[in-house]
Amino acid sequence: MKNFKKLKIWQKAILISDQVFDMYEELPWQKAGILRDQSTRASVSIVSNVAEGSSRRTEREKYRYMEMALGSAFELEAQTIVLHRRSWAPKAQAEQLLQDVDELQKMIIGFMARLNP
């Protein structure tokens, strides 16, 4: 697919990235500084790997990039769980992010299942 912006996975990933940046923008650096760096990097990694993977010619290459996107999604989930357990972000905001990340993970896994690497 040449226009990655039409992929539902990419659209969901960019919305999650916005959520992450918005959530951390409101948190004091002293509380969540390390998580801020890792979480924003992970969210951007998901968006980037989906976009880059969509440009690849073979299903094997696409699958590889989806694996990396999925790994970053699990990384973001773990970081959000830590943030949530520490009560550093509003509960509803962290829970919504966890729900959205879970949905994205399922979307990526479903997409990977349709590929034949």
Strand and helix layout:
Blueprint: H1 8-25, H2 29-54, H3 59-85, H4 91-114
Plain-language structure description:
This protein is mainly alpha-helical. It has one domain: Up-down Bundle (de novo design (two linked rop proteins)), CATH 1.20.1440. The protein is 81% helix and 0% strand. α1 packs antiparallel against α2 (29-54) and α1 runs antiparallel to α4 (91-114). The longest helix has 27 residues, at 59-85. The radius of gyration is 14 Å and the shape is elongated. It starts with 7 loop residues before the first helix and ends with a helix.
| C-alpha termini separation | 16 Å
- Structural class per helix/strand content? mainly alpha
| CATH architecture descriptor | Up-down Bundle
Could you state the CATH homologous superfamily? 23S rRNA-intervening sequence
Low-confidence spans: pLDDT under 50, at least 5 residues? Answer: none
* CATH C-level label: Mainly Alpha
So how many helices?
A: 4
Query: How would you describe the shape?
Result: elongated
- Strand tally: 0
Alpha-carbon Rg, integer:
14 Å
Keywords:
about 120 residues, 4 helices, elongated, de novo design (two linked rop proteins), mainly alpha
